[in-house]
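User:
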Amino acid sequence: METFEQLLDKSTTIHGHICAGQVIGVRLAMIGLREIEIADPRGSQRKDFYVLVEIDRCATDAIQSVTGCTLGKRSLKWLDYGIMAATFVNLKTGKAVRVTAREESRELAKKYCPQIGDRYQQQLEAYRVMAEDELFRIQRVQVTIPPEDLPGKPLRRVQCHSCGDWVQDCREIEQDGQTLCRPCATGRYYTIIN
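Assistant: Predicted structure:
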């Protein structure tokens, strides 16, 4: 795998700017991959692991950049928990680890870079050098990934009885004897205006 600085440069390019979240995300991804024994995430082992991210912030772009996992490849799953954490699963061995950024690391940044007055810049620089156990909590976990969430071809496609849209990968809802897409069953995030 590339060095931290090389991965951070690539991540920053993809994300659009350098920030503390990029530093956290790159380090978090490197730890997660190391812990599940993935050394070549973009090459020979690219199909051997799965990542679940728990936040839709800067660190997620970094995790995607380092791992090569994406929503489109179905190797990255976003769970809307609002927690700066990600779980890495080795699909061949079942080994899994959840890595969480420690909130107290924000205050610890002052200890690492007291000469920097701006707290965002202070965190950005401190997170580069902060001890791993001060910046992250690493937990061994067990994860069962449902077959319909795994990478690969869709398990099935069904048509919504109400609107006609096609639903893939067991995301349909059975309601009153009909197969419906989630928007028809539970409500849409949009309003049709035609």
